[in-house]
Amino acid sequence: MAGKEKRDTFDEEEAEDLMDCASQEGPAAMTEPIIKESECGRERARRRWVTVEFIVILIAASYGGMATLSGQYIRQRVSLDLYGNTTQSNGSQCNQGNATMEIEEEIQKITSKWSLYLNTCAALPSIFSTLIIGTLSERYGRRLPILLPCIGFLGQCVGQLCVVYLSLPLSYLLFGNVFCGLSGSLSLFMAGCFAYITDITTEKQRMVRIVVIEILIFAGIGAMQIGLGYMIKSLGFGLSLWIPFTAVLLSVINAGIPWLLVETIVPKSKEEQRDLAEVLKDIINLFRVKTDNRLYLLLTMFAVSLLVGIVIQGGLPSPCSMGKDNPFAGTQ
């Protein structure tokens, strides 16, 4: 009897110890799958040879295509509205008379104004959306600043298709550019891609992967500009515009499906998450620190980035509005 009572007492004490251990390990066991799932996502992304590169080349192609098509379409519409024909925008005007040259200069001025309006509508909202949405990627994940610009480019392309097929006024193009700017445009997309690459690469691999992304951007824009230059002559504006639309649609699909673009941010508790105001204060503090010439380096990099953006944004419409007149035109 005494042995039986000792065995029962031991069993009860052992059961209580097991319950205490289970209660102590319960919260850790509940949070452990979330951490493992997120870490597993980052590790899966690290093992992939291609992550955001495919989306980058698609967005670059659609961006270059829409910029080229919009510039040439605006030029054609301006020529049609002012002079009732489009023959003057189809060939070289280098060897024409003074009257024709004056007409061509007027078309260039109006086309340049429309290009300025469109670029401004996309650039100004993107400054604020990039700053806000880019900082929120630390909380909501890296896929957000990549997916939103893709949706913005898709809306811009749909707007251009409506204007081309329905012959709407050129002012309707502004709505698509504003929507694209509010979605972050190319600046937020590049920031999201660079942050994604930073998450999945080591310090030695990072620079190479970032350079590859920049090369893909310029290669995609240039290749699409050259290709569409020939396609517009044979297919027209409407059919040619479906190529950028297809590219940007594929980018939305790739960025929107989780198993195609794996999330790399580990979920944080509410105590660890920072507010937008705190992030903005950190950005301001970057420019307040003057040790080791850090301020001068930041200003230099900011100036270089600004000049590169001016070259890209200003260089895309130039061949469309000025490429068929002196001193760029060739004999045809």
UniProtKB/TrEMBL annotation:
<dbReference type="GO" id="GO:0010008">
    <property type="term" value="C:endosome membrane"/>
</dbReference>
<keyword id="KW-1015">Disulfide bond</keyword>
<feature type="transmembrane region" description="Helical">
    <location>
        <begin position="174"/>
        <end position="198"/>
    </location>
</feature>
<dbReference type="GO" id="GO:0022857">
    <property type="term" value="F:transmembrane transporter activity"/>
</dbReference>
<feature type="transmembrane region" description="Helical">
    <location>
        <begin position="146"/>
        <end position="168"/>
    </location>
</feature>
<dbReference type="Pfam" id="PF07690">
    <property type="entry name" value="MFS_1"/>
</dbReference>
<feature type="transmembrane region" description="Helical">
    <location>
        <begin position="210"/>
        <end position="230"/>
    </location>
</feature>
<dbReference type="GO" id="GO:0016323">
    <property type="term" value="C:basolateral plasma membrane"/>
</dbReference>
<keyword id="KW-0769">Symport</keyword>
<dbReference type="InterPro" id="IPR036259">
    <property type="entry name" value="MFS_trans_sf"/>
</dbReference>
<keyword id="KW-0813">Transport</keyword>
<dbReference type="GO" id="GO:0055085">
    <property type="term" value="P:transmembrane transport"/>
</dbReference>
<dbReference type="GO" id="GO:0016324">
    <property type="term" value="C:apical plasma membrane"/>
</dbReference>
<keyword id="KW-1133">Transmembrane helix</keyword>
<dbReference type="InterPro" id="IPR011701">
    <property type="entry name" value="MFS"/>
</dbReference>
<feature type="transmembrane region" description="Helical">
    <location>
        <begin position="52"/>
        <end position="74"/>
    </location>
</feature>
<keyword id="KW-0967">Endosome</keyword>
<dbReference type="GO" id="GO:0015293">
    <property type="term" value="F:symporter activity"/>
</dbReference>
<feature type="transmembrane region" description="Helical">
    <location>
        <begin position="295"/>
        <end position="316"/>
    </location>
</feature>
<keyword id="KW-0812">Transmembrane</keyword>
<dbReference type="GO" id="GO:0005542">
    <property type="term" value="F:folic acid binding"/>
</dbReference>
<dbReference type="GO" id="GO:0005886">
    <property type="term" value="C:plasma membrane"/>
</dbReference>
<keyword id="KW-0290">Folate-binding</keyword>
<keyword id="KW-1003">Cell membrane</keyword>
<keyword id="KW-0472">Membrane</keyword>
<feature type="transmembrane region" description="Helical">
    <location>
        <begin position="114"/>
        <end position="134"/>
    </location>
</feature>
<feature type="transmembrane region" description="Helical">
    <location>
        <begin position="242"/>
        <end position="262"/>
    </location>
</feature>
<keyword id="KW-0963">Cytoplasm</keyword>
<keyword id="KW-0325">Glycoprotein</keyword>
<protein>
    <recommendedName>
        <fullName>Proton-coupled folate transporter</fullName>
    </recommendedName>
</protein>
